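[scheduler] slot 2 assigned
[scheduler] job type: sequence-to-structure, two independent chains
[scheduler] chain ordering preserved from manifest
[runner] begin chain α
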Amino acid sequence: MIKKIIVSLCLLFSFSAFAQEGTSSPYSFYGIGDVKFKGTIDTRSMGGVSVFPDSIHLNLQNPAQLASLKLTVFALGGTYANTKSKTETQEEKARRTALDYLAIGIPVGKLGFGFGLIPYSSVGYKIQTLSDDENPIFSRYSGIGGVNKVFVGAGYQLTKKINIGADIQYNFGTIETTNLRYQNVIQYGTREINTSEVSGLNATFGATYQTKINSKFSFFSSLTYSPESEVKLGNRRTIDIIQFSSVGSIDVIERQEVEGIDDTTIKLPSKLALGTGFGQIKKWLIGAEVTFLNTSVTTNRFTDIQGAYFENATRYSLGGYFIPNFNSYSSYFKRITYRAGIRYENTGLVIQGKSITDTAVNAGFGLPLGGIFSKINIGLEMGKRGTTYYNLVEENYFNLSVGLSLSDRWFVKRKID
């Protein structure tokens, strides 16, 4: 297991070399950015349904599922995103590669523990405009950064049918947005840089219920709740007088720190997720989940943003998996886990009176790696967010996600050395 983790970390570091920006969406300008984390790759491949108990995969959405682990699990995942953004008059393409999560789960009897790192939200956009004036003004807007979560959690098997759990998360990160303006007829231009240092705590509580309907079929249900919390933003603003060099680089002629920029807070919305599922364990399962987020409490980083606000959000997920023969020794393909799902959500962001929605279809595979416990999980997602109406942006995206779930038994004393 240790060798597997070392190899995985080497892959992670090579992967992270490309993970400079986790999104290319202009919608990431608002709030704390574009919330990217929607579960591990195996649950995302089922539309985000996280109701199913699993003894060899980490569930990072409901901490109560940590009590279902039978083996120590090391999990990491990343996503390659290909996005085509368009308005009524323009169209652009962007590609991004980013880390999704890095976590470890450890079972100890009826208890299960987990800890790890999740890049939670991302800011990453570049927008250029040119006015129609006689001496046109060139404007460039860009943003980078995001919010990460370090978490630690535990789940406990209260009875044979009921698990409970909780985790605590520390949020941290930096968000930087830049506004640049200049005219060709004027020697100098101006650049405004806004920087926010993000920090704060939040928690998640969960419960699951599982029972046998008969000798073959089982019923599952889950509940997850995250209370409303806050993140603090230490804000800074600088104004630069700039000049473009002959090779196109930017030279700062003069810089001034703006006084009186107050630190602010952004409320993270409370979240309630309810899920239910039915099926035959290690054969097939189908489930549905609905998530309610009180995003109407969310505000933007700076109060001088006009025309955009947040309303309460709702997400609907439907999905499941199928395994032809979990214990097959004659056919590798029969041991593969085949997953599929759909997702629809009102993101909670409202721009110019229009609610921004996100719809996606998902599919994926769990490929056994060196046995039946460790797996390479591959997920495919195709979806659309936003609209070209109201002079807004429609994003059509295709995501390819790859993750490792390495399972082994730890802390077992050897009888023969």
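[runner] end chain α
[runner] begin chain β
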Amino acid sequence: MAAGIIGPLEYSREPPRNPSLRINAKEPFNAEPKRSDLISSYITPVDLFYKRNHGPIPIVTDLDKYRVTIEGLIQNPIQVSMDDIRNLPKHNVTATLQCAGNRRTEMSKRRKVRGVGWDACALGTAIWGGAKLCDVLKLVGLSNNTLTTTSGGRHVEFISVDMCKEENGGPYKASVPLKQATNPAADVLLAYEMNGEVLKRDHGYPLRVIVPGVIAARSVKWLASIKIIEEESQGFFMAKDYKMFPPTVDWDNIVWDTRKPQMDFPVQSAICSLEDVTFTRQRKMTIAGYAVSGGGRGIERVDISVDGGKTWFEASRHQKPGIKYIPDEVTSDKWAWVLFKTVVDVPDRMEIVLKAVDSGANVQPESVDSIWNLRGILNTSWHHVHVFNASQLPRSHI
């Protein structure tokens, strides 16, 4: 464990949070912003960024004593300080982090699943500042795009100071392939800033991993050590969680070893300007939300239907103001979401349906039934919202 960490960790020492967040669990604290708040800006304000935790928030009181150990299947294990990290070239990477359980509540309405009941806002986009992991690993002799070490290391494991009941009270762990960790183009960071400010405790102070384009469970917070290992991490959240099983698998017949840990996130989108059932007296209505895909794939289209999927039209997409969004171009943030907005006429009643297509021609599945899984992860089915024109309804229905 890195020096300077206070223990035992206690829920009585939690940091303050924005009162507008929707709290899905108090201990450990898990919360997301309101839909309309989420899309209020392209870069998500820190206090509105979703909070995903497995235990009390760690406290580092003496940054001068904080160290991260780099060890494992390498020749020269070392400990690095925050000054060592800050002395490396700094990079800013705009990336969307998304919990694999985003939109779980929709999936649980079909069949019961296990996990935090997230709505559609368990994600956010930030400008992460820090050192590239590939530069950090050069300190122990690993060059760019290394596939394996001389001692047989093929994966990089990140170990947190965060203690989790799922790990039998041990630290949170996750890993990525060594070839990804040492690839400069993968933009894997050891981040110490978020939106130009020092990381907040909720988001991993003083140092966290950012793995763009991958489910956020691999972006380990409160980093204590980096370990070069032969196989993927055997921590709970790699070996026995966050794996995608077919609808036929339940808790009686599950065999965890038959599936690889989930990494890239599929194409995803959601309507955030409206709730699941919305009543209105407006003649026109704005439909707005987000779309994002994993692996650095851009968003090629955002398709909207107001008649339940019978007919479709394309919504405009945007990222940074004043810069045209073109998927997979250098002018676009390849690790980040796009926002969309369109204005439609409001009939007596309408079923708004949303789906996105990424630059790899991957499209969201129509039904949640085909992707249902017992952990309720990766619900990327078409997003539905029902709208009723209140002026056309009996008062008893409003």
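[runner] end chain β
[qc] chain β: The CA atoms of residues 24 and 347 lie 34 Å apart.
[scheduler] slot 2 released
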